[in-house]
Amino acid sequence: MTTLSIALDERRTKFILLRLLKTMSDLTAAMRQVGEVARERTMQSFERSRSPSGTPWTPSRRALRTGGKTLVRNAVLRNSIHVRASSDRVEVGSPLEYASIHQFGSSGNVFCALGKSVSSRILGPDRRRKSKSASCPGTQETHSRAIPARPFLGLNQSDWGEIRDVLTDFLCGGI
């Protein structure tokens, strides 16, 4: 009969477990790396005009009209994506009010707190009246429009493998 005998050094095992426990008490650095994996996937979504899982976004009317990219007219939404890590969690997202409409879509009324263009009459250098369009930042309007979901936040299957590797490296580096 073949046997395998394993003997554990109790002191060494206890030392390793205590170091692992100390490492796990503050996962901020690991959470930040996990957040960067998610942020990178989000940047790829904007670049490819696809959800993190690879589903193409419905092109916006503006993108169809101008040949531009959907959700990237001036890159404000894309550039607002941030990572906030703490000792036990990570948040990846945008503080912009309209981010959720683009992420999840809408089929009802959309309330826009955007500047509305108004026309005013002013005197030009030749003292003739000229129309000038200006933006009124306090103007608000509601309109009904179906906005398709264009998910930009999320992970795909390969991201979970990368996250596992990040956490494994972090935890193994602590022992």
Describe the model:
- The chain has 175 residues and is an alpha+beta fold.
- 39% of the residues lie in helices and 18% in strands.
- The protein has two domains: 22-107 and 148-175, no CATH class; 109-144, no CATH class.
- It is built from six helices and six strands; from the N terminus they run ααααββαββββα.
- The strands form three sheets. The protein has a two-stranded antiparallel ribbon.
- Helix 2 packs antiparallel against helix 6 (157-173).
- Residues 116-124 and 130-136 have low confidence and may be disordered.
List the helices and strands and how they pair.
Blueprint: H1 10-24, H2 28-48, H3 61-66, H4 76-79, E1 82-85, E2 90-93, H5 99-104, E3 109-112, E4 116-123, E5 129-136, E6 141-144, H6 157-173
Antiparallel strand pairs: 1-2, 3-6, 4-5
Helix pairs in contact: 2-6
What keyword list fits this structure?
175 residues, alpha+beta, 6 strands, 39% helix, 18% strand
Read across the widest sheet, the strand sequence of neighbours is 1-2
Whole-number total of structural domains? 2
> CA-to-CA gap between the ends?
36 Å
The value of Rg in angstroms is: 26 Å
Order of helices and strands: HHHHEEHEEEEH
Strand content range: 15-25%
Shape annotation: elongated
Question: Which ranges are low-confidence, i.e. pLDDT below 50, for 5 or more consecutive residues?
Answer: 116-124, 130-136
Judged by helices, strands and strand pairing, the structural class is alpha+beta
Biggest beta-sheet profile: 2 strands, antiparallel
The averaged pLDDT comes out at 83
Helix content: 25-40%
Number of helices: 6
Count of strand segments:
6
